[in-house]
Amino acid sequence: MDPLSSILTGFKGMRKEKKIPLWLRSNVVDPALMDANSNNEALEKKGLTREMYKARKHQTGKHTLGERKHLSKISKGSKSFSHELGPKGGICLIHPRPHSFVDLKQFMELQGLHNSQLQLTAVLKLALVDLEERHRQANATIKEKEYLISNLIKSKRSLIERAFKLRAEPESAALDVSSLFTKIERKDKIENGNRVSTSAN
Fold it and tell me: Region (Disordered) spans which residues (predicted)?
């Protein structure tokens, strides 16, 4: 079975279960397929002619009373089928609408807001870069000052230790001098005593 016949057979089978809208059938049956399937032209000519005739009548709006009743049934079926194609059926149909002056005005306003946001973002980025540079310089200055303060504290401790040492040295020298004077006095007393004893003898 060729593709066109299988499509028609499938639509006939689906027609028993669900009503297929006429516009869908007219779009599926493409007249260009007649040239591609020339070998089955005799079998399909009648069905294609009927479908093309119905599609032409559907476009021009010229129908008999019976066809109008039939088309009203088809339109009801197309409504149910389009309802199945809607959001509840899992398929979102996008219906284009003409752009009005209000839409254009809203679009221009949104475009202006978008451009303003872009400019503001660029300004904020520059300000952020400047703040980051200042923060880096401040951190470098703080580290340098911390290094100087640490060196000053070390120097202070060294000076205090040196002062204690210098203070201890004079005290030790004074003790040595006083001890020396004490020894000299004792020596003088001993010598004087010896002299007195020798003179008495």
Answer: 58-81
Dihedral sign computed on CA atoms, order 130, 133, 135, 138: negative
Q: Is 154 within a domain?
A: yes
Alpha helix stretches (DSSP H) within the chain = 3-17, 22-28, 33-36, 41-60, 65-84, 101-200
Report residue 114 as tokens. Answer: 């978008």
Paired tokens of 156: 């202070």
What's the CA dihedral at 127, 130, 132, 137 to 10 degrees?
A: -160
Q: What is the pLDDT of residues 29-87, one digit of tens each?
A: 455 444 445 555 554 555 555 666 566 555 555 555 555 655 565 555 555 445 445 55
Q: Are residues 58 and 133 in the same domain?
A: no
**Those residues with Cβ within 8 angstroms of residue 77's Cβ, 6 or more apart along the chain or in another chain:** 18, 19, 20, 21
Q: Residue 53 domain-assigned?
A: yes
d(CA 83, CA 73): 15
